Amino acid sequence: MTTPSPTPAGPDPHPGFGPDLARRCYREMLTARRIDEEAIALQRQGVFPAYVSLRGQEAAQVAGAAALDAERDFAFPTYREMGVALALGVDMVGYMASHRALWHGGLYDPMASRFSSLNAVVGGPVPHAVGWAVGERLRGGTGCAMAYFGDGASSEGDIHEAMNFAAVYRAPVVFFCQNNRWALSVPNERQVAGGSVAARAQGYGMPGTAVDGNDAAAVHRATAQALERARAGQGPSLIEALTYRVEPHSTSDDTSRYRDAEEERAWRDRDPLTLLRARMEADGSGDAAFFEQAEQEARKRAEAVRDGVSTAPEPDGTDLFAHVFREPTEELARQQRVWYEEVRP
Amino acid sequence: MTTPSPTPAGPDPHPGFGPDLARRCYREMLTARRIDEEAIALQRQGVFPAYVSLRGQEAAQVAGAAALDAERDFAFPTYREMGVALALGVDMVGYMASHRALWHGGLYDPMASRFSSLNAVVGGPVPHAVGWAVGERLRGGTGCAMAYFGDGASSEGDIHEAMNFAAVYRAPVVFFCQNNRWALSVPNERQVAGGSVAARAQGYGMPGTAVDGNDAAAVHRATAQALERARAGQGPSLIEALTYRVEPHSTSDDTSRYRDAEEERAWRDRDPLTLLRARMEADGSGDAAFFEQAEQEARKRAEAVRDGVSTAPEPDGTDLFAHVFREPTEELARQQRVWYEEVRP
Amino acid sequence: MTGTMTEAAGAARGPAAGAVTREMSMQQAINAALRTVLEQDPDTLVFGEDVGALGGVFRVTDGLQRDFGAERVFDTPLAESAIVGMAVGLAMNGWRPIPELQFDGFAYPAVDQIVNQLARMHYRSRGAAPMPVTLRLPSFGGIQAPEHHGESLEALFAHVPGLKVCAPSDPQDAYRLLVQSVRCDDPVVYMEPKARYWERRPVDTAAGAGDMPVGRSRVLRPGRHATLVAWGAMVHRCLQAAEYAAEDGVELEVVDLRWLKPIDAEGLAASVSRTRRAVVVHEAPLTAGLGAEVGSLVTERAFGALAAPVERVAGFDVPYPAGPLEPQYLPTIDRILSAVQRTLEYERP
Amino acid sequence: MTGTMTEAAGAARGPAAGAVTREMSMQQAINAALRTVLEQDPDTLVFGEDVGALGGVFRVTDGLQRDFGAERVFDTPLAESAIVGMAVGLAMNGWRPIPELQFDGFAYPAVDQIVNQLARMHYRSRGAAPMPVTLRLPSFGGIQAPEHHGESLEALFAHVPGLKVCAPSDPQDAYRLLVQSVRCDDPVVYMEPKARYWERRPVDTAAGAGDMPVGRSRVLRPGRHATLVAWGAMVHRCLQAAEYAAEDGVELEVVDLRWLKPIDAEGLAASVSRTRRAVVVHEAPLTAGLGAEVGSLVTERAFGALAAPVERVAGFDVPYPAGPLEPQYLPTIDRILSAVQRTLEYERP
Ligand SMILES: Cc1ncc(C[n+]2csc(CCOP(=O)(O)OP(=O)(O)O)c2C)c(N)n1
Ligand SMILES: Cc1ncc(C[n+]2csc(CCOP(=O)(O)OP(=O)(O)O)c2C)c(N)n1
Ligand SMILES: [Mg+2]
Ligand SMILES: [Mg+2]
Hints:
The complex is a heterotetramer, with two copies of chain A and two copies of chain C.
Chain A: H1 19-44, H2 58-65, E1 74-76, H3 82-87, H4 92-96, H5 110-113, H6 126-138, E2 145-150, H7 157-169, E3 173-179, E4 182-183, E5 186-187, E6 208-212, H8 216-231, E7 237-242, H9 261-268, H10 272-283, H11 288-311, H12 319-322, H13 330-342
Parallel strand pairs in A: 1-2, 2-3, 3-7, 6-7
Antiparallel strand pairs in A: 4-5
Chain C: E1 21-25, H1 26-40, E2 44-48, H2 64-68, E3 73-75, H3 80-92, E4 96-100, H4 111-118, H5 121-124, E5 134-139, H6 154-158, E6 164-166, H7 171-183, E7 188-193, E8 200-204, E9 218-221, E10 226-230, H8 233-247, E11 252-256, E12 259-261, H9 265-275, E13 278-285, H10 290-302, E14 311-315, H11 326-329, H12 333-345
Helix pairs in contact in C: 1-7, 3-4, 8-12, 9-10
The structure holds thiamine diphosphate (2 copies) and magnesium ion (MG) (2 copies).
């Protein structure tokens, strides 16, 4: 079983993570936490058929994404990057709509949000990030692509192909692995040969860094450095944010079958929000009033998202057909007529 | 452009490569060379529709495979491992039949030969080696699997997945990459990010060694060590044999479109046969009589293979149907009747 | 040989001698079949993502690792191509692998190993390397799952020379077909209708696999006005449709295809020769779906008997949709009955 | 709309105004089409294995890197899944990618990115992310090539919602279809019949893509006794068969399907309504091949007119074989003529 490593002591190792940024991250991490809690509740109430929690990964997601420039960068998420969506300003009702099963990819606009549609194929979106980044350099842009994936995903062939492509083309991509120690029921020990995703980077001649993924400042700093490097034309890098999936894989999962409750508890104690709050209290970047206000805002926002997603209208059956092609076909129009005549509720 | 590194000088770094082994390797390398030449001639005469030469890679293939135990190990080749086939004692007429297009996988028995059928999917057979090795350990056997692939193949997802699986399961596999600097028209510089296939091994927590692939002794030693390790239950390793494809990719290729004739010439001068002969002359393990006899035997064998493959009967049309299933279906029997009535020559 | 079907609805037969009949869900029946083959054949191995301690996301492999050990039943890293590639290598070393791919939509990353390797190794080696691999694939839709968790890949697999493909529709057949698939010396893709995992039915675990050869279909309900052909979860829907039709005096014959390759062309032709009309129903998108093959086989063999063109009721040519649209995507009873009506009312122009 | 076909044999039409007609092989015509789109649309990119300095293994991209630069035309590492995945990302950044996969059989490793990503990204994003990707795929057999170099994947692609698929049969149509595919805002799989790369024919490079909408088939030879339907290299074989049949007074209509998705169902039905008989010919294995879909479409739309079931002449259900067996695997003229004879002699039992 894995246990968390202790919080680093000594002088602040992250001078770039100033009070404003800390406050922003805290607010968004807390908001993500509260939305997550609402989502779990919605699943219990039967509003969501299932839900995948990001609990415990708020620092890895929010503080990493806070280094992105939402004007020019582009994030390629999996199905668990709710905190990234929040940090990038994605319409959260539209995001959560995916979990209510209103539309697989969510109801937000991925192009306007610079946050690709939710993607359920483990490893699948990572080559897209590379293509986007190659395209960005070809047109002389300065944006970077951020490719999210998990420890389990690191086993997929697509991850390897994508890293090799990115390094060959020196494309501005940051490969951001949230190693939350578990891929559904399989722990790192039986998933990641060698034990380190970050160590894979060297084989492609690119930098790979493992950071404490529950330490917002460390995540932010590593991400900012990787983005700077990519923007300067020095090519891709890989960040492995070491964190933990404190909740089950999804609401349909049962962790008692495969992992120790003790391990979960130990990691719950290393809650990224608690850690960040302690740090902010220590360095004075957050006082009681700030935390109180953050709590109120987060709750309010989470409730708004909850209400919004709960009451969002179900998609119309015409949507089945509307987005298949940009240039519609007669056959699909014929099938839509069948739907209209024989199925339409 | 890449140039060969100089031959290492100083005391013999490969004490394990004794006179008998050197003579065996030389004989088989020379035989492979002569069969290769016959094959190129057969292609020019129109007997083979196309041919992929192993010229320049004889040391990497023969001296590596000479470390295998043909009683218990199993090799998984690509389409270019003619020297490996020879070293393992595969029926060479049956092997060459694949190049005459008599049967894609060749006409030899891969199970009896412990040399899998020729495989044209770049990267595709590598996971088979891992499965075979996992199965070998499960049954308590002591055999090892040898997985061949090229520098180009190293970019495929299957290679990554296979290495990760092998290392997770500590399977007795040797990943043997012949880096001949070119994957068809694409050189290492635009194929292998980071520049070293061997360097990828570390990311999986397994040993990775780059050896001079034109130095038979070095190849043999590295392979023997990797096999020993695997047999002792210490898991997989990766060998990168640095060599060069001195011929075009295949007889249909035209290297003048993409590489420098100078580079080819430089590598032709580092011919593995010349190197081994010089070494054997220096240490006395081969005298003029030996080399003369080796030449005669190689020629004789090559001519026999040439004659055998040229005169081998074409497969019968019934073979189209015979090997699809072990438990035949009525539909296929019906189709065979159609063939019998409407197609049979 | 005769192409007629040998079995009426399984439930209608009395228990065989030595029968061990228990009520179980399909997911339990598959588990029981895996236990049978793990017990009887020491060369069998069960592996895939999360099949070990977790017992699979649908608990189909529940308890197998505990009972047969982590050497026979084991988790793999998360990589579908390597899972199938490993199965090929294991088969070459004398094993009888039973890999699982977690969901239909995640078979796509393994397609190269399935098509170019698994399906061809026996052919490529001229019979030297048998591939007795049973690839379990939780399949089809109907459970309001996320993207890539509700798809039907049978047309892809049925088109691949060297593969056999089957899909059960009830617990008894799930048991029998799985044992039969594992014992088959050729690679079989075994497609499990997730939507039917939970319904409980009596299962006779002593029922031999041999009593129905590979490729045989079943008439689950006899009828004389038209034949409904389906597989997997759609069989149940067709049986429901037949109930409704019966209320209007229309007697529909329901054929559970079971084997999607080889297809029981003779059995289908025999049924349609009696009913003169056929409707094939599947979840996969219409175009180039297996319904086209079924329709072609029926038409080729029973053209003279056919009073109307074979009707196809299928998923629409759209990506499998999310929750609320799923019931509008999948063939509905209304759509099946409309097709029946069209075929009954058909008049040659 | 009318489903009738608008074009008789291309060669029979006079040159259009502004026509630039040159004799060229299909491989040159595709090269010319790539030049046209690279010139006219600065967002187009050509990439794949060995497409740069080498100009592709068939020289289809010959000189493009030299003339358009290594930013617009570039080699990739050897990894098909990443090639398609990169195309998806490039499209999301506003490009119009034209990736090549080197051979049919090497599309399998990319199937996940093609099916789960390329074909769905537009849908998944509710239209926000267009995927104007043209995937070039040297396809089909007939050149006595190694394993995996002679396969026909059209049934797989045609079944995938969100994809369009086409295959030219001659240089002129290769030019026109490629320009049309690239300009199409949806993903198109463009299947090139390798066996027809070398035959030279006059090509009018000013021929607009617009004169035949996506999904339209062509009657290449009119006839009244039966309709032959084919695509790719089999079109030529059907034209040859029609020549032979004509010697016996049998007038066969030959339809070049061109678009394999969407399929010109109306056009086919119109032809078969006249001829009352149809034979569909393809290289892919019979079972679950696209011939089943063509046959079903024809039968559904022209059942009343059909005097016999639609005949299918296809590759056998065996892995694509090596050299000497290739001519026995591919549909032969004899097999086509036998099928024609069967359909002409058919008598309703
Ligand atoms: C290609 C593919 N295979 C299998 C699955 C089923 N699946 C969904 S999530 C998951 C585990 C993923 O683990 P990891 O990458 O570590 O991400 P995490 O869930 O921990 O965030 C699996 C096996 C999938 N979604 N995609
Ligand atoms: C999956 C796959 N993609 C593409 C090809 C076409 N192809 C055949 S050989 C080759 C280059 C292989 O290079 P490398 O792995 O270095 O092996 P080498 O030919 O140098 O021995 C390519 C692209 C193939 N055979 N398989
Ligand atoms: Mg994880
Ligand atoms: Mg190479």
